[in-house]
Amino acid sequence: MSIQFIGVTKEYKNGSNIFLALNNISFEAKEGEIVAIVGPSGSGKSTLLNLLGGLDRATSGEIIFDGLNLSALSDKELTKYRRDKVGFVFQFYNLIPNLTAYENVEVAAELNKNSLKIDEVLEAVGLLDKKDKFPQELSGGEQQRVSIARAIVKSPKLLLCDEPTGALDYKTSKEVLELIDKINQIYKTTIFIVTHNTSIASMCHRIIRLRSGQIIEIKENINRISPKEVEW
Amino acid sequence: MILNKRIKRVITLNKAQYIGLIFLVALSISLYTIFSSLAFNFNKATSDYSRTTNIEDAKFLTLKDLDINYIENTFNVEIEKRHEVDVSYKSSTIRLIELTNKINIPLMIEGNLIKEGEIALNPAYAKANNIKIGDFIELEGFKYKVSGFVSIPDYIYPTKSLSDLMADPTKFGVAIITSKDILKYNNLTYFYSIKGDVEKVKKYIDENYKILMWQDIQDNLRYVLAKKKIEQLPQLSVKIPLLFFTLTFILLFILLRRIIKLEIKEIGTLYALGYTKLEIQKHYLFYPLIISIIGSILATLFTITLQKPLTNYYVFYFNIPVQSDVKYKFILYGLLESIIILSLASYTASQTLLKHSPTTLLRGKISKDRLTFLSGLNLEKLKFNQKFKIRESIRGISKILTLIFGIFTASTLLLVGFAAKGSIDALINKTIKNTLNYKYVYYLNQNINKNSINQEGFKIAYFKDKNSNENIIVYGLEENTKSLKLKKGKEEVKVDKIYITNSLYEKLNKKNNIELINLFNNQELELKIDDVVDVYTGNVIYMPLEDLNKIINEERNSINGIFSQQPLNIDSKLILKYESIDETLKSFDIALEPVKYMLVAMGILSFIIALIVVYIVTSLIIEENKYTISMLKVLGYYENEINSLMLSFMLLPSVLGYVLSIPFVKGFLNSILKTSLKDINLAIPIEINPIYSLFGFAIIYTVLLVSKYISRKRIFKISMVDILKLQNE
After folding, report:
1. What domain count does chain A have?
2. What is residue B575's predicted lDDT score, i.e. its pLDDT?
3. Which strand (E) or helix (H) includes residue B437?
4. ipTM here
């Protein structure tokens, strides 16, 4: 299984103005890799992630994942794709405020018959003892752990993380990165991390650098370091 | 102010919500205006009617012919002799009445006053028998041209006999013809009508001419019943729209507050840009103003369209000429109330928001999601979707209350209609079907011995209450009567004591001793009432036959009425009147036919209102939960699954709103009907048939389903990407 972007363009129209968020980009990533998408604000990182996650559609080009051409899928098929194959982790966690930590994970577990046991996943992220707490009773780091638990509980093949440490302090950020790395090792999940923090890229297998909607560099990271060693 | 340019855009963007609000305003103002104008027009019509028709103070018959001129001059009264005759037309009876010009002057509702060879009929009879102006009809050998439709003051409610409860226009009508025409008939009867100080002259007439019959106008049910109905029913029909008007505006207040509160970020932006609180509040006052003005314009259109047909419907029922003018002052009141209430909603909503700093408002949330004591509920054992719905309900108590109130308002309107139908059904069932166990009843014009027939006999005697002057009928019955089933609750009672009907009890408000005057011989007597029975029509007392005979000094076994299961072969000279239960039921059916149309109209109206309310509430729920819905989409939930998760919680509050409206409607109707109906010898038991209740809820449930279906589109429109971008702490 691999992930392929072939000549993908994404335009946003605003009246008569057309904004090119991604301009004819192509790349390939392998199964089980952690891929870093880096670049300055407005370079198209989040757009790329949204297209890969089936949240949005490319204007042209093909996105192939696990044999599926995402561009050719109907809305319903795209929903099924997200439901079965993709997990999301966001910068601001996006937990549902009136559900407990356990229920926030359950909201994703419900979608897949082969979901992992919620208690086990919460234990894996170190939050089993806080499973009955509501998001507002948890710290930022704890909320992000719940968000990760929610993303992985349905054992997705693809985990997409949009600035997962963007709202966290240094220490908590490193704990979250270690967790992501652990998931990659245990479940062999392919992970894409969008970040403007270039240091995080050093723990990834592959680094894609974007600027103004175009790829300026694709690098295989042969000197990958562990999350513990990442410094910024 | 440049800012005001966005008003149109905001309204266009949320057009469904604003159209809903405008329609609610329009419906409630137009209903209020239509019925208030109707009441105003009817009040004017009744006072004009009494004045222009110069209605009699009494009607009488004497043994010798009166010297009218002498009496008029001596006693300063007006007297007029009037002939009447009953003729057959097809299978019905028309009572031809001589055209008078002093007292009881007929009033044309439509067409022209009669000339010789012409006839004018009461409109309900003409309609029921398909007779139109310009038609020719032949009555017992004489041909007449129909010149118009008329209202005869002492026959406003045209019942054939004075004791009839309901008019049956298919069987009986009244008409006027000229004196010359009426004198062509044989078998004429006549009465004298008198207007003026009757007490002084009555004694003189009795002494000199011997009064055979005397009926004060207050005892003429054809006039009294109609007058009271006319005076009270429009008032009654104002109270229901007024209730609806009040409920709707409370609801509008709640809904507009929520809609304005959704503008939190925009208000925050304006505040941050340097707009003052006053400028922002002024801007948001335009919304209620626009809703009120457009709503009132629509209300005016609805009113103009509906006022005339509705007035005609009432005129047909009550048989007096009424203008169908719209009283625009009521629309103005509605507009003012709408502006005041909605502006207050907008002002308080923006005021609440503007207490906070611009930075707080820009975050899109005034406070972090608060945990309530209910958040700690242990829901572990429930399925996920049940947990989600419960959590959603706990979080939005205020939206649940809004929904409960919205459904309560729509259900109230719906159930008022159902209660009216149910109560009338109950009245018919309890009073006629369950009480009267005979098929035919014969009233005799003389006493016979009960043992001379092999049917069940009874005695009927006519009295009036000394204090209230109410006419009261007393029945003397066999102790084990099989023809009347008198019940108290579920228990059937024997006629071994003296019972009073529920309607008479409610009117006199006592069941102890009643002082009666015998209408036949003016003898006074006092009756001790033992109990009340569940009969809801008529001023009636039931007592043992022998006891009644004893107090009126008649032979103990004498009777003047017969109950029977089949038609009897009795000498027609003996029969004063005969009634068949099937015909009585049929006349109820005819009289209640319009109620069915009213029910359908109310059903449609409450469906529309419920749909508007539920749609606005659901769209607010979707708007307020955009973020959660977006997140569920990201996770891979299908739209119908999201729809079910987000909106299914509405069922329970809707059930609650509906259930709460049942006792409210019963209480409301009981309170208004008690005052309105007691004068017309009815005490309607307020009942909502369980089948109607279920049907009513089926309507509300359909509204929920339709609203959920429409909401799918809104859910579909929520973008996953945009919402995630907007999301920040």
Report:
1. 1
2. 76
3. none
4. 0.85
